Protein backbone atom coordinates (compact mmCIF):
# COMPACT_ATOMS: atom_id res chain seq x y z
CA UNK A 1 0.00 0.00 0.00
CA UNK A 2 2.82 2.39 0.78
CA UNK A 3 4.27 1.85 -2.69
CA UNK A 4 0.97 2.61 -4.42
CA UNK A 5 0.44 5.61 -2.16
CA UNK A 6 3.81 7.05 -3.09
CA UNK A 7 3.14 6.48 -6.78
CA UNK A 8 -0.24 8.21 -6.51
CA UNK A 9 1.34 11.21 -4.80
CA UNK A 10 3.98 11.48 -7.52
CA UNK A 11 1.36 11.30 -10.27
CA UNK A 12 -0.82 13.89 -8.57
CA UNK A 13 2.16 16.21 -8.22
CA UNK A 14 3.04 15.76 -11.89
CA UNK A 15 -0.54 16.52 -12.94
CA UNK A 16 -0.60 19.61 -10.73
CA UNK A 17 2.63 20.90 -12.25
CA UNK A 18 1.40 20.21 -15.78
CA UNK A 19 -1.86 22.04 -15.19
CA UNK A 20 -0.02 24.95 -13.58
CA UNK A 21 2.11 25.81 -16.61
CA UNK A 22 -0.86 26.22 -18.91
CA UNK A 23 -0.67 30.01 -18.66
CA UNK A 24 2.97 30.10 -19.74
CA UNK A 25 3.88 30.28 -23.39
CA UNK A 26 6.43 28.30 -25.39
CA UNK A 27 6.53 25.47 -22.86
CA UNK A 28 6.36 21.95 -24.26
CA UNK A 29 6.10 18.82 -22.15
CA UNK A 30 7.53 15.69 -23.75
CA UNK A 31 7.59 12.29 -22.13
CA UNK A 32 9.01 8.97 -23.28
CA UNK A 33 8.36 5.47 -22.03
CA UNK A 34 8.83 1.88 -23.13
CA UNK A 35 5.85 0.75 -21.02
CA UNK A 36 2.87 2.60 -22.47
CA UNK A 37 0.54 -0.11 -21.21
CA UNK A 38 0.91 1.00 -17.59
CA UNK A 39 0.50 4.74 -18.10
CA UNK A 40 -2.05 6.45 -15.91
CA UNK A 41 -5.09 7.45 -17.95
CA UNK A 42 -5.19 10.85 -16.23
CA UNK A 43 -1.90 11.81 -17.88
CA UNK A 44 -3.31 11.06 -21.33
CA UNK A 45 -6.36 13.28 -21.01
CA UNK A 46 -6.82 16.23 -23.42
CA UNK A 47 -4.73 19.20 -22.41
CA UNK A 48 -1.96 17.07 -20.95
CA UNK A 49 0.00 14.41 -22.82
CA UNK A 50 -2.78 13.95 -25.33
CA UNK A 51 -0.63 13.63 -28.45
CA UNK A 52 0.84 10.14 -28.49
CA UNK A 53 3.48 9.21 -31.06
CA UNK A 54 4.71 5.66 -31.55
CA UNK A 55 8.41 5.68 -32.43
CA UNK A 56 9.45 2.31 -33.86
CA UNK A 57 12.96 0.92 -34.06
CA UNK A 58 15.28 2.90 -36.36
CA UNK A 59 15.28 2.03 -40.03
CA UNK A 60 18.42 1.70 -42.14
CA UNK A 61 18.77 5.45 -42.70
CA UNK A 62 18.31 6.18 -39.01
CA UNK A 63 20.76 3.44 -38.01
CA UNK A 64 23.40 4.97 -40.28
CA UNK A 65 22.82 8.36 -38.65
CA UNK A 66 23.15 6.82 -35.18
CA UNK A 67 26.39 5.05 -36.09
CA UNK A 68 27.81 8.23 -37.59
CA UNK A 69 26.91 10.25 -34.49
CA UNK A 70 28.37 7.64 -32.14
CA UNK A 71 31.68 7.59 -34.05
CA UNK A 72 31.96 11.29 -34.83
CA UNK A 73 34.91 11.74 -32.42
CA UNK A 74 36.57 8.39 -33.13
CA UNK A 75 39.17 7.72 -35.86
CA UNK A 76 37.46 5.24 -38.16
CA UNK A 77 39.50 3.54 -40.88
CA UNK A 78 38.50 3.86 -44.51
CA UNK A 79 37.86 0.14 -44.80
CA UNK A 80 34.81 0.43 -42.52
CA UNK A 81 31.53 0.64 -44.43
CA UNK A 82 28.96 2.10 -42.06
CA UNK A 83 26.23 1.74 -44.68
CA UNK A 84 26.76 -2.03 -44.73
CA UNK A 85 26.82 -2.13 -40.93
CA UNK A 86 23.55 -0.20 -40.78
CA UNK A 87 22.00 -2.56 -43.31
CA UNK A 88 23.03 -5.67 -41.34
CA UNK A 89 21.78 -4.41 -37.97
CA UNK A 90 18.05 -4.53 -38.65
CA UNK A 91 16.06 -4.70 -35.43
CA UNK A 92 18.79 -3.06 -33.32
CA UNK A 93 17.90 -0.08 -31.19
CA UNK A 94 19.95 3.08 -30.79
CA UNK A 95 21.43 1.77 -27.54
CA UNK A 96 22.41 -1.50 -29.24
CA UNK A 97 24.22 0.35 -32.03
CA UNK A 98 26.00 2.59 -29.54
CA UNK A 99 27.18 -0.48 -27.64
CA UNK A 100 28.65 -1.93 -30.85
CA UNK A 101 30.58 1.29 -31.50
CA UNK A 102 31.86 1.48 -27.93
CA UNK A 103 33.01 -2.14 -28.00
CA UNK A 104 34.81 -1.58 -31.30
CA UNK A 105 36.57 1.46 -29.79
CA UNK A 106 37.65 -0.57 -26.74
CA UNK A 107 39.01 -3.32 -28.97
CA UNK A 108 41.03 -0.77 -30.94
CA UNK A 109 42.44 0.76 -27.73
CA UNK A 110 43.29 -2.68 -26.35
CA UNK A 111 45.11 -3.55 -29.56
CA UNK A 112 47.09 -0.30 -29.37
CA UNK A 113 48.11 -0.99 -25.76
CA UNK A 114 49.29 -4.49 -26.62
CA UNK A 115 51.37 -3.17 -29.52
CA UNK A 116 52.95 -0.55 -27.26
CA UNK A 117 53.84 -3.15 -24.68
CA UNK A 118 55.51 -5.35 -27.29
CA UNK A 119 57.34 -2.37 -28.66
CA UNK A 120 58.67 -1.39 -25.23
CA UNK A 121 59.97 -4.89 -24.65
CA UNK A 122 61.99 -4.87 -27.87
CA UNK A 123 63.53 -1.43 -27.70
CA UNK A 124 63.49 1.64 -25.49
CA UNK A 125 60.88 4.12 -26.49
CA UNK A 126 62.14 7.49 -27.70
CA UNK A 127 60.66 10.29 -25.61
CA UNK A 128 60.46 12.58 -28.64
CA UNK A 129 58.56 10.04 -30.71
CA UNK A 130 54.89 10.79 -31.09
CA UNK A 131 52.38 8.22 -29.99
CA UNK A 132 50.65 6.47 -32.90
CA UNK A 133 46.93 6.97 -33.31
CA UNK A 134 45.03 3.72 -33.57
CA UNK A 135 42.14 3.62 -35.99
CA UNK A 136 39.04 1.49 -35.69
CA UNK A 137 39.25 -1.06 -38.48
CA UNK A 138 36.66 -3.42 -39.86
CA UNK A 139 38.13 -6.26 -37.80
CA UNK A 140 37.22 -4.42 -34.61
CA UNK A 141 33.61 -4.09 -35.74
CA UNK A 142 33.52 -7.73 -36.82
CA UNK A 143 34.71 -8.76 -33.37
CA UNK A 144 32.24 -6.41 -31.70
CA UNK A 145 29.37 -7.87 -33.71
CA UNK A 146 30.08 -11.28 -32.16
CA UNK A 147 28.85 -9.89 -28.84
CA UNK A 148 26.05 -7.76 -30.27
CA UNK A 149 22.50 -8.57 -29.30
CA UNK A 150 19.08 -7.04 -29.73
CA UNK A 151 17.57 -5.58 -26.60
CA UNK A 152 14.07 -5.45 -28.12
CA UNK A 153 12.63 -8.80 -29.18
CA UNK A 154 10.08 -9.44 -31.90
CA UNK A 155 7.46 -10.14 -29.23
CA UNK A 156 8.08 -6.72 -27.70
CA UNK A 157 7.73 -5.07 -31.11
CA UNK A 158 4.43 -6.83 -31.77
CA UNK A 159 3.23 -5.79 -28.33
CA UNK A 160 4.04 -2.13 -28.99
CA UNK A 161 2.45 -2.23 -32.44
CA UNK A 162 -0.72 -3.83 -31.07
CA UNK A 163 -0.92 -1.21 -28.34
CA UNK A 164 -0.44 1.58 -30.88
CA UNK A 165 -3.14 0.13 -33.12
CA UNK A 166 -5.52 -0.32 -30.20
CA UNK A 167 -4.92 3.26 -29.10
CA UNK A 168 -5.62 4.61 -32.58
CA UNK A 169 -8.83 2.62 -32.80
CA UNK A 170 -9.99 3.82 -29.40
CA UNK A 171 -9.51 7.45 -30.45
CA UNK A 172 -10.83 7.14 -33.99
CA UNK A 173 -14.54 7.00 -33.15
CA UNK A 174 -16.38 10.19 -33.89
CA UNK A 175 -19.26 11.64 -35.85
CA UNK A 176 -19.12 12.77 -39.45
CA UNK A 177 -19.71 16.46 -38.76
CA UNK A 178 -20.13 19.04 -41.52
CA UNK A 179 -21.55 22.53 -41.46
CA UNK A 180 -24.48 23.03 -43.83
CA UNK A 181 -23.91 24.99 -47.00
CA UNK A 182 -24.60 28.70 -46.75
CA UNK A 183 -27.00 28.55 -49.67
CA UNK A 184 -28.94 25.71 -48.08
CA UNK A 185 -31.96 26.63 -46.00
CA UNK A 186 -31.93 25.43 -42.37
CA UNK A 187 -35.35 23.80 -42.83
CA UNK A 188 -33.94 21.50 -45.50
CA UNK A 189 -31.44 19.94 -43.14
CA UNK A 190 -33.94 17.54 -41.62
CA UNK A 191 -35.29 16.50 -45.05
CA UNK A 192 -31.77 15.88 -46.32
CA UNK A 193 -30.91 13.66 -43.37
CA UNK A 194 -34.22 11.84 -43.76
CA UNK A 195 -33.51 11.24 -47.45
CA UNK A 196 -30.10 9.79 -46.61
CA UNK A 197 -31.64 7.46 -44.06
CA UNK A 198 -34.27 6.37 -46.57
CA UNK A 199 -31.59 5.63 -49.15
CA UNK A 200 -29.60 3.60 -46.67
CA UNK A 201 -32.66 1.64 -45.59
CA UNK A 202 -33.60 1.03 -49.21
CA UNK A 203 -30.18 -0.47 -49.96
CA UNK A 204 -29.83 -2.48 -46.78
CA UNK A 205 -33.39 -3.74 -46.38
CA UNK A 206 -33.21 -6.47 -49.09
CA UNK A 207 -29.97 -7.81 -47.65
CA UNK A 208 -31.36 -7.71 -44.13
CA UNK A 209 -34.53 -9.54 -45.16
CA UNK A 210 -32.50 -12.21 -46.97
CA UNK A 211 -30.27 -12.64 -43.95
CA UNK A 212 -33.27 -12.91 -41.63
CA UNK A 213 -34.80 -15.58 -43.88
CA UNK A 214 -31.56 -17.58 -43.87
CA UNK A 215 -31.25 -17.43 -40.08
CA UNK A 216 -34.89 -18.42 -39.63
CA UNK A 217 -34.52 -21.34 -42.05
CA UNK A 218 -31.44 -22.72 -40.34
CA UNK A 219 -33.04 -22.25 -36.93
CA UNK A 220 -36.12 -24.21 -37.98
CA UNK A 221 -34.01 -27.08 -39.30
CA UNK A 222 -32.01 -27.26 -36.10
CA UNK A 223 -35.07 -26.68 -33.94
CA UNK A 224 -33.31 -23.77 -32.22
CA UNK A 225 -35.29 -20.81 -30.88
CA UNK A 226 -34.07 -17.53 -32.28
CA UNK A 227 -35.28 -13.94 -32.16
CA UNK A 228 -34.40 -11.40 -34.82
CA UNK A 229 -34.40 -7.63 -34.41
CA UNK A 230 -34.06 -5.10 -37.20
CA UNK A 231 -33.08 -1.57 -36.17
CA UNK A 232 -33.24 0.34 -39.45
CA UNK A 233 -29.57 -0.03 -40.41
CA UNK A 234 -28.58 -2.73 -37.93
CA UNK A 235 -29.61 -6.36 -37.73
CA UNK A 236 -29.26 -8.42 -34.58
CA UNK A 237 -30.44 -11.82 -33.42
CA UNK A 238 -30.51 -13.60 -30.12
CA UNK A 239 -30.49 -17.32 -29.49
CA UNK A 240 -28.14 -20.28 -29.56
CA UNK A 241 -27.59 -20.20 -33.33
Automatic annotation (TrEMBL):
InterPro entries: AAA_ATPase_domain, AAA_lid_3, ATPase_AAA_core, ATPase_AAA_CS, P-loop_NTPase
Keyword Transmembrane helix: no
Biological processes annotated in GO: autophagosome maturation; mitotic spindle disassembly; retrograde protein transport, ER to cytosol
Family per record: Belongs to the AAA ATPase family.
Residues of the ATPase AAA-type core domain: 3-57
Protein name (record): Transitional endoplasmic reticulum ATPase
The entry's keywords: ATP-binding, Nucleotide-binding
Coiled-coil positions: none
The keyword ATP-binding is annotated on this UniProt entry: yes
A single Gene Ontology CC term: cytosol
Region (Disordered): 177-200
Domain AAA ATPase AAA+ lid per the UniProt entry, residue ranges: 79-118
Originating species: Adineta steineri
Classification via PROSITE patterns: AAA
Residue ranges, compositional bias (Polar residues): 177-188
Superkingdom classification of source: Eukaryota
GO molecular function, one term: ATP hydrolysis activity
Gene3D superfamilies: 6.10.20.150, P-loop containing nucleotide triphosphate hydrolases
Amino acid sequence: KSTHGAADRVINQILTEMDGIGAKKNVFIIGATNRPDILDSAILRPGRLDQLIYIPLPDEKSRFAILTAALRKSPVAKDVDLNFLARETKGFSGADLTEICQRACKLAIRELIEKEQQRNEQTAMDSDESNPISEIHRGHFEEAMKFARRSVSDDDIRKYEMFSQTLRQSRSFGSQFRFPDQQQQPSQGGHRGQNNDDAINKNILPTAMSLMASITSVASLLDVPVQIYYYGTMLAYSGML
